[in-house]
Write a structure and sequence with these properties.
By secondary structure, the protein is of the alpha+beta class. It has helices at residues 8-14, 17-32, 77-81, and strands at 42-44, 51-60, 65-74. The protein contains three helices and three strands, in the order ααβββα. The longest helix has 16 residues, at 17-32.
């Protein structure tokens, strides 16, 4: 199986706000009913770098959906480099 990388244009071509809202509503319903696997987020702090990455996986069997959200936070980015704190 190959990994497919999608561009913003690819996603805009097949997702609508309605489709997204329906998926989120269904996912939250499954979560509230206890039918989703969503462990606590996993933090990783690179030594001496002043930042943190947070990994948040989830699986929703009824949607046959598996995914993860990754957030990286470096508090000094704006002051030191003029770039966003959260990447």
């Amino acid at each position: 199986m190959k990994t497919r990388l999608l561009t913003k244009a690819d996603i805009q071509g097949f997702l609508t706000i309605g489709t997204c809202m329906d998926a989120v509503e269904s996912a939250f319903g499954d979560f509230a009913a206890g039918n989703a696997v969503m462990p606590q987020r996993v933090p990783i702090k690179p030594e001496g770098k002043g930042g943190i990455s947070l990994f948040m996986p989830a699986y929703i069997p009824s949607l046959d959906a598996l995914g993860a959200k990754v957030v990286t936070v470096y508090a000094e980015n704006m002051n030191k480099f003029g770039i966003p704190v959260t990447l």
